[in-house]
Automatic annotation (TrEMBL):
Domain of life according to the entry: Eukaryota
Pfam family for this entry, one: DDE_3
InterPro entries: RNaseH_sf, Tc1-like_DDE_dom
Protein name: Tc1-like transposase DDE domain-containing protein
Gene source species: Araneus ventricosus
Every Tc1-like transposase DDE domain range: 40-95
Biological classification of the source: Eukaryota, Metazoa, Ecdysozoa, Arthropoda, Chelicerata
Transmembrane feature ranges: none
Gene Ontology molecular functions: nucleic acid binding
Length: 144
Protein backbone atom coordinates (compact mmCIF):
# COMPACT_ATOMS: atom_id res chain seq x y z
CA UNK A 1 0.00 0.00 0.00
CA UNK A 2 1.06 3.60 -0.30
CA UNK A 3 3.42 4.85 2.40
CA UNK A 4 3.56 1.67 4.50
CA UNK A 5 3.37 -2.12 4.32
CA UNK A 6 2.47 -5.18 6.34
CA UNK A 7 5.12 -7.57 7.59
CA UNK A 8 6.19 -10.15 5.02
CA UNK A 9 4.59 -13.52 5.67
CA UNK A 10 6.79 -16.48 4.78
CA UNK A 11 4.91 -19.76 4.73
CA UNK A 12 6.53 -22.64 6.55
CA UNK A 13 7.12 -25.83 4.62
CA UNK A 14 4.17 -27.69 3.14
CA UNK A 15 1.68 -26.92 0.47
CA UNK A 16 -0.23 -23.66 0.63
CA UNK A 17 -3.92 -24.51 0.42
CA UNK A 18 -7.07 -22.44 0.50
CA UNK A 19 -7.30 -23.16 4.23
CA UNK A 20 -3.76 -21.92 4.87
CA UNK A 21 -4.35 -18.88 2.64
CA UNK A 22 -7.47 -18.01 4.63
CA UNK A 23 -5.93 -18.72 8.03
CA UNK A 24 -2.47 -17.22 7.47
CA UNK A 25 -3.14 -14.34 5.06
CA UNK A 26 -6.80 -13.40 4.80
CA UNK A 27 -7.69 -13.62 8.50
CA UNK A 28 -4.68 -11.90 10.09
CA UNK A 29 -3.78 -9.41 7.35
CA UNK A 30 -6.44 -8.79 4.71
CA UNK A 31 -9.45 -8.75 7.03
CA UNK A 32 -7.82 -6.24 9.38
CA UNK A 33 -6.46 -4.17 6.51
CA UNK A 34 -9.88 -4.04 4.88
CA UNK A 35 -11.32 -2.84 8.19
CA UNK A 36 -8.73 -0.07 8.39
CA UNK A 37 -9.22 1.07 4.78
CA UNK A 38 -12.99 0.87 4.79
CA UNK A 39 -15.65 -0.09 2.25
CA UNK A 40 -13.68 1.15 -0.78
CA UNK A 41 -11.08 -1.59 -0.22
CA UNK A 42 -10.69 -4.04 -3.12
CA UNK A 43 -8.50 -7.12 -2.79
CA UNK A 44 -6.11 -7.66 -5.70
CA UNK A 45 -5.10 -11.28 -5.94
CA UNK A 46 -4.90 -13.39 -9.08
CA UNK A 47 -6.47 -16.50 -10.53
CA UNK A 48 -4.27 -18.90 -8.57
CA UNK A 49 -6.29 -21.97 -7.63
CA UNK A 50 -5.90 -21.50 -3.89
CA UNK A 51 -7.25 -17.92 -4.19
CA UNK A 52 -10.38 -19.19 -5.93
CA UNK A 53 -11.50 -22.00 -3.66
CA UNK A 54 -15.06 -22.03 -2.37
CA UNK A 55 -13.69 -21.71 1.17
CA UNK A 56 -11.87 -18.48 0.24
CA UNK A 57 -14.89 -17.13 -1.67
CA UNK A 58 -17.13 -17.79 1.32
CA UNK A 59 -14.67 -16.15 3.71
CA UNK A 60 -14.35 -13.02 1.57
CA UNK A 61 -18.13 -12.80 1.24
CA UNK A 62 -18.64 -13.23 5.00
CA UNK A 63 -16.16 -10.41 5.66
CA UNK A 64 -17.64 -8.20 2.93
CA UNK A 65 -14.30 -8.08 1.11
CA UNK A 66 -14.60 -7.25 -2.57
CA UNK A 67 -12.13 -8.82 -4.96
CA UNK A 68 -10.89 -7.33 -8.22
CA UNK A 69 -12.03 -9.39 -11.19
CA UNK A 70 -9.27 -10.96 -13.25
CA UNK A 71 -10.33 -12.44 -16.57
CA UNK A 72 -8.82 -15.80 -17.47
CA UNK A 73 -5.55 -15.52 -19.38
CA UNK A 74 -5.20 -11.85 -18.51
CA UNK A 75 -1.82 -10.18 -18.04
CA UNK A 76 -0.79 -9.92 -14.41
CA UNK A 77 -0.57 -6.23 -13.67
CA UNK A 78 -0.30 -6.63 -9.92
CA UNK A 79 2.58 -4.47 -8.62
CA UNK A 80 3.53 -7.24 -6.19
CA UNK A 81 5.07 -9.17 -9.09
CA UNK A 82 7.65 -6.39 -9.50
CA UNK A 83 8.29 -6.44 -5.77
CA UNK A 84 8.88 -10.22 -5.82
CA UNK A 85 11.37 -9.58 -8.64
CA UNK A 86 13.17 -6.92 -6.58
CA UNK A 87 13.33 -9.31 -3.61
CA UNK A 88 14.73 -12.07 -5.83
CA UNK A 89 17.40 -9.76 -7.24
CA UNK A 90 18.35 -8.62 -3.73
CA UNK A 91 18.67 -12.22 -2.53
CA UNK A 92 20.81 -13.07 -5.57
CA UNK A 93 23.36 -10.40 -4.61
CA UNK A 94 23.89 -11.80 -1.11
CA UNK A 95 27.30 -13.22 -0.36
CA UNK A 96 27.07 -15.94 0.69
CA UNK A 97 23.76 -16.96 -0.80
CA UNK A 98 21.24 -18.50 1.60
CA UNK A 99 21.90 -22.25 1.84
CA UNK A 100 19.07 -23.43 4.05
CA UNK A 101 15.36 -22.75 4.26
CA UNK A 102 15.88 -20.83 7.51
CA UNK A 103 18.64 -18.71 5.93
CA UNK A 104 16.33 -17.97 2.98
CA UNK A 105 13.49 -16.99 5.30
CA UNK A 106 15.80 -14.68 7.26
CA UNK A 107 17.18 -13.17 4.04
CA UNK A 108 13.68 -12.56 2.64
CA UNK A 109 12.53 -10.88 5.85
CA UNK A 110 15.65 -8.69 5.94
CA UNK A 111 15.40 -7.71 2.28
CA UNK A 112 11.67 -6.96 2.66
CA UNK A 113 12.52 -4.51 5.44
CA UNK A 114 15.17 -2.90 3.22
CA UNK A 115 12.92 -2.34 0.18
CA UNK A 116 12.47 1.34 -0.51
CA UNK A 117 8.90 2.43 0.15
CA UNK A 118 9.25 4.94 -2.67
CA UNK A 119 9.64 2.06 -5.17
CA UNK A 120 6.45 0.46 -3.83
CA UNK A 121 4.62 3.80 -4.01
CA UNK A 122 5.74 4.30 -7.63
CA UNK A 123 4.52 0.84 -8.62
CA UNK A 124 1.13 1.43 -7.03
CA UNK A 125 0.84 4.92 -8.51
CA UNK A 126 1.60 3.53 -11.98
CA UNK A 127 -1.45 1.23 -11.95
CA UNK A 128 -3.72 3.60 -13.87
CA UNK A 129 -1.22 4.11 -16.70
CA UNK A 130 -0.31 0.40 -16.72
CA UNK A 131 -3.97 -0.57 -17.11
CA UNK A 132 -4.45 2.02 -19.87
CA UNK A 133 -1.39 0.68 -21.71
CA UNK A 134 -2.71 -2.88 -21.40
CA UNK A 135 -6.10 -1.84 -22.76
CA UNK A 136 -4.46 0.05 -25.65
CA UNK A 137 -2.36 -3.02 -26.45
CA UNK A 138 -5.51 -5.19 -26.26
CA UNK A 139 -3.91 -7.34 -23.59
CA UNK A 140 -0.66 -7.78 -25.50
CA UNK A 141 2.76 -6.91 -24.11
CA UNK A 142 3.29 -3.43 -22.70
CA UNK A 143 6.46 -1.57 -21.75
CA UNK A 144 5.76 -2.18 -18.04
Amino acid sequence: MLDCRTPLHVFDRATVTGVRYRDEILEPYVRLFRGAVGPEFILMDDNAGLHRTLLVDEFLESEDIRRMDWPARSPDLNPIEHIWDALGRAIATRNPLPRTIQEMKTALLNEWDQLQQEMINCLISSMKSRCKACISARGDHTPY
